[in-house]
Amino acid sequence: QVQLVESGGGLVQAGGSLRLSCAASGRTFNSYVVGWFRQSPGKGREFVARIFWAGGSTYYADSVKARFTISRDNAKNTVYLQMNSLKPEDTAVYYCATGPSILSYNYWGQGTQVTVSS
């Protein structure tokens, strides 16, 4: 099992910034890629960004490209999501997830709420 704990959510005005953290523990050898997803009321879960522990390769959804940056600290088993130029439509519960591949996010965190006011 891999445990994930997100933190860093909150309320921010449009145009502001937040940094989310996702700390992994447990059997982290089962974790090769970490993704951030979000879900807002009435909408399905949406992919935001992902990063590989080895090499640090990243990929972003078009909706957040150039505004969000995903990074990792391998020594701390922690992945970050720096969110800049936030918009009201970024309001959602943000989840991090991990697994052996981008097709297998087997472990999920509990989520952290991000609210962007206009």
Give the oligomeric state: single chain
- Coarse morphology: globular
- Please, how many helices? 0
Element pattern in H and E: EEEEEEEEEEE
Average of the residue pLDDT scores: 95
Overall helicity: under 10%
What is the CA-CA span between the terminal residues? 40 Å
Number of strands: 11
* Class of secondary structure makeup: mainly beta
- Radius of gyration, rounded? 13 Å
Strand content: over 45%
Instruction: Describe the main β-sheet briefly.
Output: 7 strands, mixed
Contiguous low-pLDDT stretches (5 residues minimum) are: none
Short description:
Helix content is 0%, strand content 54%. With 118 residues, it is mainly beta.
Structure explained in plain terms:
With 118 residues, the chain is mainly beta. The chain has no helices and 11 strands. It has strands at 2-7, 10-13, 18-26, 33-39, 46-52, 58-60, 68-73, 78-83, 92-99, 107-108, 112-117. The strands form 2 sheets. Strands 2, 4, 5, 6, 9, 10 and 11 form a 7-stranded mixed beta sheet that branches. A 4-stranded antiparallel beta sheet has the order 1-3-8-7, with no helix packed on it. The protein is globular. The termini are far apart. 34% of the residues are buried. The mean pLDDT is 95.
Name the descriptors.
118 residues, mainly beta, seven-stranded mixed sheet, four-stranded antiparallel sheet
How are the SSEs placed, and which strands pair?
Layout: E1 2-7, E2 10-13, E3 18-26, E4 33-39, E5 46-52, E6 58-60, E7 68-73, E8 78-83, E9 92-99, E10 107-108, E11 112-117
Parallel strand pairs: 2-11
Antiparallel strand pairs: 1-3, 3-8, 4-5, 4-9, 5-6, 7-8, 9-10, 9-11
